[in-house]
């Protein structure tokens, strides 16, 4: 099913309240490796909400060394995302330093808190991480519909099976990629985040 068809299908459920949780590293690298393009995060949010009532959309980011993400965070906030930023932890392993920063616990805690307050009907989890299976089962036991939206190539099979609905972003590439537009005056390529 195409993105536009999904959006139209779910407009009849406009009374449902949706919370969207985006594992940004997972989505970013999935798009980079699968589509070889950048994601239009406005379109991604539209795909997650699909005409229903947005309760909250949270983008979980890792604060990368020497990468200024201020303008990206500004864009996300203007699109309606709440942004949470985490510092990576350093681990020393013999002759190298490894960094680890995942948002699994943060996403789970936020989703459970929203489920407990009774204000959401649907959770949209944008991640392919199999660690979320227990969270999905918990939310479903609370009567919340859980949709997983991710790139199938980097998504755990058990996560797909646990979800009420699964949407493969690899099949939505024509809708979610950031369009490159030619600058008529200078022949330069510029990115558009407009829908």
Helix/strand/pairing class, anyone?
alpha/beta
Number of strands: 10
Counted by DSSP, the helix tally is: 8
- Beta-strand proportion: 25-35%
Strand order, main sheet: write it out: 3-2-1-6-7-8
Proportion in helices: 25-40%
Instruction: Assign the CATH architecture.
Output: 3-Layer(aba) Sandwich
Which residues form runs of ≥5 with pLDDT under 50? 183-195
Radius of gyration: 17 Å
Q: What's the number of domains?
A: 1
The overall pLDDT, averaged over residues, is: 89
**SSE order in H/E notation?**
HEHHEHEEEHEHEHEHEE
User: Could you tell me how far the N terminus lies from the C terminus, measured between alpha carbons in angstroms?
Assistant: 19 Å
CATH homology-level superfamily: 5'-nuclease
- Main sheet, how many strands, which sense, barrel? 6 strands, parallel
Overall shape: it is globular
Do you know the CATH topology? Rossmann fold
Please give the oligomerization state of what you see.
Answer: single chain
CATH class: Alpha Beta
């Amino acid at each position: 099913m195409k993105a536009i068809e999904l959006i139209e299908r779910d407009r009849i459920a406009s009374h449902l309240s949706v919370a969207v949780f985006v594992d940004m590293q997972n989505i970013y690298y999935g798009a980079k490796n699968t589509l070889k393009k950048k994601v239009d995060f406005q379109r991604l949010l539209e795909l997650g909400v699909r005409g229903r009532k947005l309760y909250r959309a949270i983008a979980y980011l890792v604060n990368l060394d020497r990468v200024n993400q201020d303008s990206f965070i500004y864009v996300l906030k203007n699109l309606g995302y709440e942004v949470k930023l985490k510092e990576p932890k350093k681990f020393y392993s013999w002759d190298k330093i490894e960094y680890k920063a995942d948002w699994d616990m943060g996403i789970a805690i936020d989703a459970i808190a929203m489920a407990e307050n009774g204000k959401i009907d649907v959770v949209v989890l944008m991640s392919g991480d199999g660690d979320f299976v227990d969270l999905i089962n918990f939310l479903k036991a609370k009567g919340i519909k859980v949709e997983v939206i991710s790139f199938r190539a980097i998504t755990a099979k058990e996560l797909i099976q646990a979800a009420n609905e699964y949407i493969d972003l690899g099949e939505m590439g024509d809708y979610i990629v950031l369009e490159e537009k030619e600058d008529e005056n200078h022949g330069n390529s510029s990115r558009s985040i407009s829908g």
